[in-house]
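chain below, 572 aa
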Amino acid sequence: MTGPDEPRVRLPQLKLDELLEELQARINAARGTQERVHSLLEAVLSVGRELDLEQVLHSIVEAAAVLVDAQYAALGVIGPDGRRLSAFHTVGVTEEQIAEIGPYPEGHGILGELIRHPQPLRIPRISGHPASYGFPPGHPPMSSFLGVPIRVRDQVFGNLYLTEKRGGAEFDEEDESVLSTLAVAAGVAIDNARLYEESRLRERWLLANAEISHSLMSGIDRAGSLGLIAERAREISGSALAAVALPMEGTKSLTVEIAVGVDAEAHRGLVLPMHESLMGLAYTATAPVTSDDIVHDLRITPEPPRFGGLGPAVAVPIGTGESGMRGVVLVARETGEPVFLQQETELLLGFAAQAAIAMELAERRQDAQQIALLEDRDRIARDLHDLAIQRLFATGMTLQSAGRFIEHPEAAERVLRAVDDLDETIKIIRSTIFGLRTRLGATDSGLRARIVRAVGEAAPVLGFAPSMRMEGLVDTDVPPEIADHVVAVLTEALTNIARHAHADRAQVVLTTDGREVRLKVSDSGVGIPSGGRRSGLLNMAERAERLGGRFKVTSPAGGGAALEWWVPLPAE
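prediction:
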């Protein structure tokens, strides 16, 4: 201890300055940590505030870039296969740069490293990592890298990728810790957004079912109900195309009754084989059938071309079990769009099942109305037979007896003429009674089924199955006598293709608008040589002329031949 008169011990000035600087650095670090924690909390609140999934993902990427001071940030969503990225959300890259770089990455190189090993990954230089194999042309230079996985309910949803920490520094442990914390909050926010999106989607499907049920019970026709099913399925599933196919009685084929969306005309009226079409596979399996790329799916016949520009697709049965199967609905998205997830397929399947129930109830209602109508016809027929005919017959007998007492020749002749008129009236009424009691359903097989059978029988001889399309009320508008000619012309045309065309493709198109019926048969063969036998063509032409129609043969630009045969339909 020193006395008042002794000199004080002075610390070196330099030592004191160092202590002050260290203290200031600690204060600044504490303040910086506090500000960073505050920024992290703000980011968590901002991300959790959103309910739209796309907006949530974008907010996560933006927040990540700000928190670790990165120039570039991205969030890659892992696809259903668990090996590739199905979506990629970026921050820091302009639209021009994105266009110059090309398609978004699928998950190779460094990005794939995080998919294969979902653990935080921090790299000082990307080019120095063994998994790196460079950037595509036009890609901005990137050096430092930090990536963390985002988990939703213990499942890896995607990964956060951060590159180029500003100022040329490297990402440190604190950056990794902050980003990992954000990833946890992001997983919760994504789960909430997906639950909200799922509830909204279920609500839309339920409303669509209610709309279809109301329309069917209000008396809408079959075409209207199928069109409504296709339109709502396309809208709610976010698809570019929707089609509904129904089974053809007496055949093992489906016919596309309704199609809406992209290139819908290429699908309407198509006759599809059960085992070479997505809709046929779904019908025979009585279960949903999906395709990641419907254009290149080997299970589906490529003829005729009808899926241009489309990619992911799913076909689900309308109804359950063989007895309850009423058809198939198919929806397809554009190329590059996300594939159909199991959850989406289940919702579509539920929608189709409810639509089948509504269709069955509507059919039961129509059956009840038909039964009531037939019962009313039977009652009218009975009344005509038991009352009207008996009275007319009795009146005729009375007049015939009275005629013997009439001496005036002209008067007697008039009475006999009246008796004959009564006999004719009785015959007309009996014919009417027969017509009232005749029920539909006893007619022969319809023209649609006959066309399908004729094409099916020709397929083994041709060596391939021709594609078919039928539009209009073929079975209703075309009378049996004209239908016989149509089948005969088709059979002759397919026989000619098998014998002379050397074709590997053929197409059959049958259409009617209620005024005429038109058959067109085209092939990809050698065409019709000049000077060859034309007896078959003459027969087709004679059939058309006999019915007041026309027949012509053309040579398409792509080769082969096209036969077109059309005749007018009798007016009602």
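Confidence is low (pLDDT under 50) at residues 439-444. The CA atoms of residues 300 and 366 lie 36 Å apart.
thats it, cya
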